[in-house]
Amino acid sequence: MLRSSMDLYDLMKEAIPNDHCHQVNSRDMVQALSASDLPAKHVLDLGCGVGSSIDLFKQYFPSTDWTGVDIEDSPEVASRTRSDGTFVTYNGRDLPFPDANFDLIYSHQVLEHVRYPDQVLGEVARVLQPGGTFVGQTSQFEPYHSYSIWNFTVYGFKRMIEDAGMKLEEIRPSIDGFTLMERTYSGRDPRFSQFFTNESPRNREIETLAQHAGKGPRVVNHRKLTFCGQFCFRVTKP
User: Of 74, 45, 236, 44, which Cα lies nearest the Cα of 149?
Assistant: First the structure.
């Protein structure tokens, strides 16, 4: 079958990796960055919640200066107990930091909760140093959770990143959307939790069928991205 010029593969190809097609999460993305020569002296966790990424960055970037920012009124902030990081409150729109202040900005499952995503992504670009990296994870097909507002298509996310003056370098599939929906439908049965780190059922099926058909990693990643519930991203500021 011929693809139209508007096919997702054509629109996203340059950002879809061809090295492997495994399901990943944002922590895997940080681990991969740690193996590069990326400078990460000043790191911002956008939507830091309870501050759990402090441990992540202590593991992979132990000398980094970690700052977390979040809105004042959220269930995650309300349950925060740790004080071993710099925690800052913002209004959900304007990041209270100088221009080009951070080498690396991290955001795990936060952007779907942001009321003004265009403005916040513009602020990410402003406070990120030239050549800096924005890495994280957000939702495409995920039912409502914890005051979530949006779901992003992978193409829509790419467009918003470009509108903010940044470049989407890499996009990878996380847990598949069917499994996320079934998890919610089941009342968040704990049995589904394994699929946030292990390959989820539909992702396994896509990979098996593609391997039998002799398809390469980029094609498999594209297929998984088409149906993913969440996806990971690596973005740079020119």
Answer: 74
Average pLDDT over residues 157-173: 98
Give the 3-state secondary structure percentages of the chain, helix then strand then coil, rounded to 5. Answer: 40, 20, 40
Where helices occur in 164-200 by DSSP H, the ranges are 177-185
- pLDDT, tens digit (0-9, with 9 covering 90-100), for 27-58: 999 999 999 888 789 999 999 999 999 999 99
- Sign of the torsion angle spanned by Cα atoms 228, 203, 220, 106: positive
- Give dist(CA 164, CA 118) in Å, integer: 7
Going from the C-alpha of 31 to that of each of 51, 56, 69, 145, 210, the distances in angstroms are: 18, 9, 21, 27, 27
Tokens standing for residue 225: 């991205």
pTM, two decimal places: 0.94
CATH T-level topology, domain 19-236: Rossmann fold (3.40.50)
Strands 128-139 and 230-236 come out as antiparallel
Domain spans of the chain, in order of start: 19-236
